[in-house]
Write a structure and sequence with these properties.
By secondary structure, the protein is α/β, with parallel strands linked by helices. The chain has 2 domains: 5-166 and 347-363, 3-Layer(aba) Sandwich (Rossmann fold), CATH 3.40.50; 171-342, Rossmann fold, CATH 3.40.50.2000. Helix content is 43%, strand content 15%. The strands form 2 sheets. The chain has a 7-stranded parallel β-sheet with strand order 3-2-1-4-5-6-7, sandwiched between helices. It starts with a strand and ends with a helix.
């Protein structure tokens, strides 16, 4: 007799995969006798991150439709019948009790076919501006789970649930405030791969060995591809600065605890971690993000006085420095930003999502 199971379709980026893993692990704790299958693409990052956590991954071959060339879009459309057929085959073989879409190309065909088969379906949308796949899927699925309430107006769904953003447990437990007095502690990063524009502006801002650069302690995560170039940008002045330049940070929860102000992109995962830790932030949205969702995320925070946004086209070392000096001079403003961004965090989001799903499944029987 086959075990009961659910499908979680997720892939492409860590911003999709890590929250999906948090949901999967919460489901495994709630229903240890059930099986959780991930659905992704054969060559996505999910194939590296999912199996080590003890979950099986199934594959659907599907291409991209958004922000790609007309040739790639045409190829994706031509392959769509095959993607739908392979999704149908997986659904008939494993007969999941529910299918959840957490982002990535495989979400489209698997959630569409599951909804047509009257399997319980939900999509999780972490951005203030939903991506193309979720906008199209919203009219077919049973429910949309949202991080930003403002995403509602872009979705045509039967029901909504304020799901929150699952974050790593150690980050959720991190202390909200840095335990020091004096000049700012600044944490700067552009995601696991880094962000060249951010790296350049931060290094140029700190490079002059004047009083500002000397007294402000900085942790600057560059990403592996830009590390050598950034070290060259700092040059000999690095010896005079309180700056730690690193490729990657393996102890983010400790770094958040240490920091007064964070400079970062505005991806959903970064925003969620900042909210969980209650950190004042200067956000520089990635202008090429699909559907400009990073700017929409940042705008949602700015509207609530929970962050400062600098558009990449306006970013200069001088503007960045001026913004930091303003925050240093107004600790009460930083404190308000910390309080306001915390309102975007929902503790134990993964557990709440799973509990809600199980309630919905029970009420349907």
């Amino acid at each position: 007799m086959k075990k009961n199971c659910i499908f979680i379709a997720a892939g492409g980026t860590g911003g999709h995969i890590y929250p999906a893993l948090a949901i999967a692990e919460a489901f495994r704790e709630a229903k240890p006798d059930w099986e959780v299958f991930f659905v992704g693409t054969p060559h996505g990052l999910e194939n590296k991150l999912v199996p080590p956590r003890g979950f099986k991954i199934l594959h659907v071959k599907v291409g991209r439709l958004n922000q790609v060339s007309m040739t790639e879009k045409l190829l994706t459309l031509l392959k769509m019948p095959l993607s739908l057929f392979s999704s149908l085959r997986l659904l008939l073989k494993y007969k999941p009790q529910a299918a959840i879409g957490v982002g990535g190309y495989a979400s489209g065909p698997i959630l569409l076919m599951a909804s047509l088969m009257r399997i319980r379906t939900a999509i999780w949308e972490p951005n203030a501006m939903p991506g193309l796949t979720n906008r199209l899927l919203s009219r077919f699925v049973d429910e949309c789970w949202l991080v930003f309430d403002s995403a509602r107006r872009h979705l045509n769904a039967r029901a909504f649930f304020p799901a929150g953003m699952p974050v790593r447990k150690e980050i959720e437990k991190a202390s909200a405030s840095a335990s020091h007095s004096g000049p700012l502690h600044l944490l700067a990063f552009g995601g696991s791969q880094g962000a060249r524009v951010l790296n350049t502006n931060i290094a140029e801002m700190l490079k002059p060995a004047d009083e500002f650069a000397r007294v402000h302690a900085v942790v600057h995560q560059t990403g592996p591809n830009d590390f050598a170039r950034v070290k060259e940008l700092y040059g000999s002045s690095l010896n005079q600065l309180s700056v730690e330049v690193t490729e990657y940070l393996h102890d983010m929860h400790r770094r958040y605890e240490w920091a007064d102000v964070v400079i970062a992109r505005a991806g959903a995962a970064s925003v969620a971690e900042l909210a969980a830790c209650g950190k004042a932030a200067i956000l520089v949205p990635l202008p090429t993000a699909a559907d400009n969702h990073q700017q929409k995320n940042a705008e949602a925070l700015v509207k609530e006085n929970a962050a400062i946004m600098i558009l990449q086209k306006d970013l200069t070392p001088a503007k960045l420095r001026a913004t930091l000096l303003e925050l240093e001079a107004e600790p009460s403003r930083r404190h308000r930003m910390e309080q306001n961004i915390r309102r975007f965090h929902q503790p134990q989001a993964a557990e709440k999502i799973v509990g809600h799903l199980l309630e919905q499944m029970d009420s349907a029987h």
